[in-house]
Amino acid sequence: MIFGLGYTAKHLAARLExxxxxxxxxxxxxxxxFGDTDAVRFSLGKADAVLSSVPPDRQSGSxxxxxxxxxxxxxxxxxxxxxxxxxxxxxxxxAWVDETAPTGTGRRSARSEADRAWLGLGARVxxxxxxxxxxxxxxxxxREGRANRIDIPGQVFSRVHVRDIAEGVxxxxxxxxxxxxxxLSDDLPCPQNDVIEEACRLLGTAPPPLQSLEEVDLSPMxxxxxxxxxxxxxxxxxxxxxxxxxxxxxxxxxxxxxAADLASGLALGGSAGLAASDPPSLADRGLGG
Length: 289
Known about the structure:
A 5-stranded parallel sheet has the order 1-2-3-5-9, sandwiched between helices. It has a two-stranded parallel sheet with strand order 4-11. It is built from 11 helices and 11 strands. Helix 1 (7-16) packs across helix 6 (162-174) and helix 7 (192-203) runs parallel beside helix 10 (250-263). The protein is α/β, with parallel strands linked by helices. The protein has a single domain (2-285), classed as Rossmann fold (3-Layer(aba) Sandwich). It is globular and about 55 Å long. The chain has helices at 7-16, 37-46, 64-74, 109-120, 138-143, 162-174, 192-203, 220-226, 235-240, 250-263, 280-285, and strands spanning 2-3, 49-52, 79-85, 96-97, 124-128, 130-132, 149-150, 159-161, 180-183, 210-211, 231-232.
């Protein structure tokens, strides 16, 4: 059972169903109404595994799943998972962080609290950086004129292709992996400008101009995102889950996204004017960090 059948969870369901898993889920495209407590509890009662991809509520900061069904999950005897964010690590000044790094020091305090709560329930907590994939990548932002390059020397981000998230969670599920936190990120943290430039190269269009942070019209949330700088280590997932990202860098990942776009009939090229926007990772990840 999946709480929140969003972009990432849909890829996980698609990964599991051919292997005999029946998936029930809440969400607009799911089979369950989150507010129908009888139906949700019935589904929980027959589930072998439960995964939540629901972020904390933006206004209250509370985890909607734990608020509504925390007592049920505390009694659940099967496999439990939660899609969290590497934003729980806060700013590391560009240094590497792994699952032993302190959490709760960054701007995502509500996410950190939810992360701790799910760990307390014995969940496998998958901490995710910037999520991208078909339909949600730098290619789309370049086409739509939403891409920008910001001149922040030394700034790096980590990211992960949605397919690699699905594979990591599937491995943890199949292996009944030990409880605890797992970073699922690619092998090459890098400046976001590198990703935008590669997307432009693939699309055969000129990169947007390099601007200072002050010149770009960013929301307060986006500016907070750029205030954090870290490299996310994935060694534990590789060692414990035997996970190897199919897309170890943004280069392979963007090439795969472009191939998927072409297969679906989406043309090359983008908008003539490139406007400033929020950082791509905020739009792509849905989870952040």
